[in-house]
Amino acid sequence: QVQVVESGGGLVQPGGSLRLSCAASGRDFELHEMAWYRQSPGKERNVVCIISGSGSSIFCTGSVKGRFTISRDNAQNTVYLQMDSLKPEDTAVYYCNNYPTPRAWGRGTQVTVSS
């Protein structure tokens, strides 16, 4: 079972960038498809981007496509989310977890986009 710790969030102005990291523990990390999810206040947690175990296949939802990039380093058991051209509507707590069946959730990392 993969356990995760997210980091890298913060306060950024619209148009700015952040890079989130997800440190994972557990066996066979490279066999797990991983995803970044986000949850805004009063809303459901939704998938943002997905990456295959090898990292060769990625997908991001329409609202962030072209602005966010997911990647992974299996040697470091880490998943990244590069977020560019951030918008106020990207404000949320960001989590990483297995996909499509999440395991135990980490604390997430808060991203706030505001001027």
If you had to describe this structure to a student in words, what would you say it looks like?
There is one protein chain. The mean pLDDT is 95. This protein has strands spanning 3-7, 10-12, 18-25, 34-39, 46-51, 58-60, 68-73, 78-83, 92-98, 109-113. The strands form two sheets. Strands 2-10-9-4-5-6 form a six-stranded mixed β-sheet, with no helix packed on it. It has a four-stranded antiparallel β-sheet with strand order 1-3-8-7, with no helix packed on it. It is mainly β and 115 residues long. It is globular. A hairpin with a 6-residue loop joins strand 4 (34-39) and strand 5. The chain contains no helices and ten strands.
Brief digest:
The chain has 115 residues and is mostly beta strands. The protein is built from no helices and 10 strands.
